[in-house]
Amino acid sequence: MIKTLVLLGATGDLAGRFLLPALAALRAADRLPDDFRVVAAAREDLDDQAFQRTAAERLERHAPEVPAAARADLIRSVRYRRTELTDPASVGSLLSGVRQPVAVYLALPPGLYTAVVTALGSTGLPAGSRIALEKPFGEDLDSAMALNRLLDRVTHSAGEQAVFRVDHILGLPTVQNLLALRLANRVLEPVWNSRHIEQIDILWEEDLGLEGRAGYFDRSGTLRDVMQNHMLQVLSLIAMDLPTRLDEQALRDRKLDALCSVRPLRLDEAASRTRRARYTAGRLSDPAGGAGRAVPAYRDEDGVDAARGTETFAEIVLDLDSERWSGTRFLLRAGKALHRRRKQVTFRFRPAEHPSAHSAPANELRIGLDGPEDLALHLTGGVSLNPPSWAPVTLAAAPPAADLPAYGRVLLDVLSGGSTLSVRRDEAEAAWRVMTPVLAAWNAGLVPLEGYAAGSAGPP
Fold this sequence. Notes:
The chain has 13 helices and 17 strands. It is α/β, with parallel strands linked by helices. The chain folds into two domains: 4-167, NAD(P)-binding Rossmann-like Domain (Rossmann fold), CATH 3.40.50.720; 169-403 and 423-453, Dihydrodipicolinate Reductase, domain 2, CATH 3.30.360.10. α2 runs antiparallel to α3 (68-76), α9 (221-239) crosses α13 (425-443) and α11 (267-273) packs across α13. The longest helix is centred in the middle third of the chain and has 19 residues, at 221-239.
């Protein structure tokens, strides 16, 4: 296992909200070596003590469930170095004297990746090191392919063992459960096809607004932020054929097959098969039942450039050219500042073939991706048959207990050399082949930018 994590962008929100708490959870679970250390780097002029105080405050806020002793132990292993992350000389100074392999984690805006990776290449990383990059990987197909070529040069073509393309949703136990459900249940796999399933909805709906993330989100938008990566990864796990053997290569091959089967939209199809919108002023709901919180229109949020036309809501309907799924619609919908939080996959089954069942409500299987509901099967039951009268029957299960947070699983994979939770280079490029034509249609003005009130169900 790699014993040194170099955390670039250590003062940012991602590091404080997710990565440091994940490391503390790994320490509490005794999953890190005793001599493990973190080299934290950012542009801020801090010393070790100042950064450690800040890190301790963030852990207390974002990881209160982790024992205090584990948090303190992690903090003692952290050293801070002020670094100009795009300057080869500064990055070289940061890594000077490093002899053993390191894991370099880019907790940075994607727009900096090319410059930072170039600086790392000029420094020269020890053999066996890994570079981990957050999503989105590139901004379109061309930039993703260029970034892959750059990583090849920097890692001397060491391949997937040297590069970890992060998509933390793959570390969620509910997402991992998608594959387990199919492998372990003979009940589901026989009906897991277009003959029985009419439509599959993949939903990533949030009841929060921008929350101070304009610096990143306004340059990304919903399609790049969650749809091109998180949601297409979920689609690949749902749509793939089961691998004949359970290993990293076979699993990723089948995911790639599923992504390659997605039929890219033509420009003229985008108008009828995609939507984009952004929220106007409104009031977000309060989960505790209060009056909620008023928020301004997205274009008026601090740090937003209204002229960019960044979308906070996106919806796309896709078809797959595969024997299993030809004839099934895949609907992807994601949005911010909506009336409820709902991250789930809904499988809508075709009506039963008997004529009397045509008036019955559709049967649905709902699988939660990130709470609050993990697995629910909504079936049609009969109150009477003559005349037909229907009533719903619901079977639900609680979410599986998670031994580690999603980022804890990701970091463990990064440090141990695993790649199951990494997006392979051809997967990343295949996902962009699906989404780049949509971006082209939007940039050409073929799909209008609609509006919806914050706290509503989305555009009408």
